[in-house]
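Retro notes, item 3 of 5
We never archived the inputs for the zinc ion complex last cycle. Fixing that now. Sequence and ligand:
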Amino acid sequence: MNRFVSTFALSALMMPLAWGGAETASAEAAFTLPQPALTAPVPRPAGAGINLKVLPWAGFHSAVSYTFDDSSPSQIENWPKIKAEHVRSTFYIVPNGSGQSGYETTFKDIVAEGNELGNHTWHHCKAAQLGGADPAGCPGGFSVDAELDKTTDYIKSLGQSDVWTMAYPFGDTGYTDAVKPRFLLARGVFPGLVGASDNTDPYVLPMVGYPGDPNPPGGEDVSVFNADLDRAEAQGKWLIFLLHTLLPTSSNWGLGENVAAVTGSMEHAKSRGMWIDSVVNIGSYWIGERLVEHAAKTESGGVTTWSWTLPPHFPGGRVVRVTVNGGTLSQAGKALAWDPHGYYEVSLDAGSLTWKK
Ligand SMILES: [Zn+2]
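Structure as it came back at the time:
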């Protein structure tokens, strides 16, 4: 299923904008990894041997990210209802539309609430239209580099310390060569789910999206969202919802879904105990898991050491949750504490982990 922005939506995205400098202020909330439900405390393992295992999805069985594309007026209008769910999401913004009423105030609030702003380019054009074969197709006159870098600068001006992920306009992977050096992850528009240890391309993350209004009128029923959440939970995978217009709205840019169906599905995901979080938060865990699982391993005098190097644009302060059969895990000479939820938390910034009996 290929996603597109309607002609009406595209014309709205082309609204002129004065590049106004908001002051840079790091207003984003500090990151904390959520805890899965604790039914009974798990005792610290005291068995023999190492058997280091990284828990997929931070110890949750599955994960879901809600991504909202295009920074449309409908998202500004419906933000209070999304905010009331206290779920961290990702908004892939197109700052050419930042002249809209309430735009900067809303997206600053979205950052302050711990959500992620991702890069969806400045003018939402196809890569080939930017200084390529069809330059007239994109009136902004920016290069591919400028489309990405000006958007990143704008996001930082709203208080987010960095920009880690992007979504291709129209799903156009013609941006990929420029995207890889700039971001940790990028979301495409191909349908699918992400497995904890599968070979999904981090620069073409798959998504789940629906036709939306007017087919069916008013968008999909909440049961459609919930069925996909149940599918991800059953398979133990990461689902990334792709959403455009939220209904009701005074300015329908197409592909609309009722905000009540979206928030209803968030409630369903909570009831299933899924990890609900932004693309950078779940995606960096997903990368971190694979880093530690494939870390270089050395053994000397009864001490085993794993070492890894974080990729560029990896956010700071991140952890993965691990188990071992027994013994003591340490980082920087300090023994890790066992969490009765059933894991040790390993700092990824530390770059190494040691085990001894
Ligand atoms: Zn878009």
